[in-house]
Amino acid sequence: MRKTIFDTDTASDDAIALMLALDYFEVLGVTIVAGNVKFENEVSNALFTLEYLSRPDIPVYLGAQRPLLGQWRTVEEVHGKNGFGDWEYPSPLKKPESEFAADAIIRLSKEYEGELEILAVSPLTNIALAYLKDPKIINRIRKIWIMGGAFTRGNTTEIAEFNFWVDPEAAQIVLNAGFDITIVPWEIAEESATITDEEWNKIEDINTKRSEFFIKVNRVLREYSKSVGSRGSVHPDSLTVTIAYDNSVAIEKVSKYVNVELCSRSRGAMLIDWYGLNKRRPNAEVVIKADSQKFKKYLFDSLSKA
């Protein structure tokens, strides 16, 4: 199995994405970063998820508790007060490691040089910090899969997707560092990874420990998504992990130079040089269409496991 680090601001869909990652990758560690909800809730959610899925052996590393610059806000209205749909789950027994997340990323990149991939479904602060401390890491990381950015329909501002908006400086650093990167933007998930009411009911009917987990952690996410016009709960992180595992889920991709805006109301906007206007070499592969049916088959297969 391919070796990976799962970098997360653990809330609703992050937990389902982690479940998928555990099915399809050898997860060497989970690194936590500031983002969706209060940091202590993100940590607890990650620890509980690993216990719930019978993988308490996987280490959890605490990372950046704020973005590199500027201010951000958490989004409990999207994920629930604790980030897990207000599910009052038992306190996890598992404890996080003492090693800082960026240091763990650097160490693992040396231990698994040329093999290690990163599933980055969160703001990119931890990865930026690892690169700033050790720029040669770009030669050791095989691939970074990023859920981030929006073409035109921002889910946090009119133009910005949440992960890029939380820490655009970190996103800019990572995008321009020289890593092999694939980006799954927000709209692709909205189009291909939305769980409709009918599909939600089917997940309830699966009646496994995993399907129950899905329903509980995503309950508030579903309500919020529908309140802002989506057809159901949207699962960008899970789609990103699935594309990382099976690249054929990404039906159409383009290689372009991608950057991030740092200023004013457009802060966090993803800038794609569609026509090569600045003569810069492409630095990322961007998914522009995904196979919804194939993604959902992977999801339902995973949720159906005992």
Automatic annotation (TrEMBL):
<dbReference type="Pfam" id="PF01156">
    <property type="entry name" value="IU_nuc_hydro"/>
</dbReference>
<keyword id="KW-0378">Hydrolase</keyword>
<feature type="domain" description="Inosine/uridine-preferring nucleoside hydrolase">
    <location>
        <begin position="5"/>
        <end position="297"/>
    </location>
</feature>
<dbReference type="InterPro" id="IPR001910">
    <property type="entry name" value="Inosine/uridine_hydrolase_dom"/>
</dbReference>
<dbReference type="InterPro" id="IPR052775">
    <property type="entry name" value="IUN_hydrolase"/>
</dbReference>
<dbReference type="InterPro" id="IPR036452">
    <property type="entry name" value="Ribo_hydro-like"/>
</dbReference>
<protein>
    <submittedName>
        <fullName>Purine-specific ribonucleoside hydrolase</fullName>
        <ecNumber>3.2.2.-</ecNumber>
    </submittedName>
</protein>
<dbReference type="GO" id="GO:0016799">
    <property type="term" value="F:hydrolase activity, hydrolyzing N-glycosyl compounds"/>
</dbReference>
<keyword id="KW-0326">Glycosidase</keyword>
<dbReference type="InterPro" id="IPR015910">
    <property type="entry name" value="I/U_nuclsd_hydro_CS"/>
</dbReference>
